Amino acid sequence: MNVDIHQSWKHHLEEEFSKPYFKDLLGFVKSEYRTHTCFPPESQIFNAFNYCHFNDLKVVVIGQDPYHGHEQANGLCFSVNDGIAHPPSLINIFKEIELDIGIPYPKSGNLLRWATQGILLLNATLTVRAHQAGSHQKKGWETFTDTIIKTINNQKEGVVFLLWGGFAKKKINLIDSQKHKVLTSGHPSPLSANRGYWFGNKNFRNTNIWLEDQGEKKIDW
After folding, report:
1. Which part of the chain is the Uracil-DNA glycosylase-like domain (predicted)?
2. Strands 119-123 and 59-63
3. Catalytic residue among 65, 100, 213, 220
4. CB–CB of 67/89 below 8 Å?
């Protein structure tokens, strides 16, 4: 299995690709895709990096696992392909954007339009077996994606990290909040949102305020 990742990231990650854990991870993923239905499609595993190049990176959103239903996952966390019904968490993300900054609820749940504006939509685990949530966790992906976060933390300045829910908030230990802007919230899942931990977080408004203060172009959410 090839690591189909944009050149702007390769420069920072070449050492990682040669480590034993990463070679074992690729072997595992190759075997899984050969023997089971897995998501996202193999050609889209590294989409988050291929559509958000390292030099353009302004915002990081951290998810946990790809969607495990057919035709949903496209390599960008929380995103689904055009024409696919919006999962509950994505529905709540769009509702909060509408509440926060007045952008109407969109027809498409494909967040490619975010990625190309400099948002890294990073799942901690980049692959999953069909209909088996968490099935590719603890195989090495988390080590790799933690390295991604550390690399961004060390090599960039003024990045906005959006940490939604308990899992994502644990990543704060990898981030220097003096160098970067960290915005947190409950998870957009119905369970968290219905308990009052999601709506009203103003993360989207505050991301753009921060970016403009840094002289960066704000995100068209």
Report:
1. 50-211
2. parallel
3. 65
4. no
Cβ–Cβ < 8 Å for 22, 144: yes
The DSSP secondary-structure symbol of 132 reads: B
Tell me what pLDDT residue 25 has.
97
Placement of tokens 């995103």 in the chain: 79
Confirm whether 65 is a catalytic residue: yes
Amino acid code (one letter) for 68: H
pLDDT of 27 over the 80 cut: yes
CB neighbour list of residue 123: distance below 8 Å, 6 or more residues apart: 48, 62, 63, 64, 65, 66, 77, 145
Q: How far is CA 94 from CA 33, 80, 167, in A?
A: 32, 13, 21
Residues 6+ away with beta carbon under 8 Å from 131 = 68, 69
CA distances to 6, 24, 217 from 14, rounded to whole Å, are 12, 16, 30
The CA distance from 125 to 63, in Å, is: 8
pTM of the model: 0.96
Reported as a single tens digit per residue, the pLDDT across 87-97 is 999 999 999 99
Give φ, ψ of 42 to 5 degrees: -55, -35
| Contact between residue 84 and residue 115 where contact means Cβ atoms under 8 Å apart | no
pLDDT digits (tens, 9 = 90+) for 198-210: 999 999 999 999 9
Q: Omega of the bond prior to 104 within 30 degrees of 0, cis?
A: no
108: left (phi over 0), alpha (psi -120 to 50) or beta: beta
- C-beta neighbour count of 11 within 10 angstroms: 10
